[in-house]
Design brief:
GO terms for molecular function: DNA binding; transposase activity. The protein is mainly α. The protein has four helices and no strands.
Length: about 100
């Protein structure tokens, strides 16, 4: 029995598939057949696109370019905050060492 490999789809593909239903009037079964994907996964992409269009940043990988940029910026902010925290702790440690030496 061969193990079936899981397919992966780009954000653009997911958005195009969801747009067939949301913007072009396809039914979910029609769009799923034309894009050769399952109806369940297509429904998930449709819901995600609706959420993103509402201005909410998803927890999964974003579909729209604006939400992708927001996710990238949020990741950068998180990294910078972690670096800042590390620097604060290092500075406090160095200052306490200096205080000990001056006594």
């Amino acid at each position: 029995m061969t193990k079936r490999q899981r397919r992966t789809f780009s954000s653009e593909f997911k958005m195009d598939a969801a747009c067939l239903v949301l913007d072009q009037g396809y039914s979910v079964p029609e769009a799923a057949r034309s894009m050769d994907v399952g109806e369940t996964v297509l429904r998930r992409w449709i819901e995600q696109l609706k959420i993103e269009r509402g201005g909410i940043t998803p927890t999964a990988k974003a579909l729209t370019s604006e939400q992708i940029k927001i996710q990238e910026l949020e990741a950068r902010i998180n990294r910078l905050e972690r670096e800042k925290s590390i620097l604060k702790k290092a500075t406090a440690l160095l200052m306490s060492d200096e205080l000990e030496r001056s006594r």
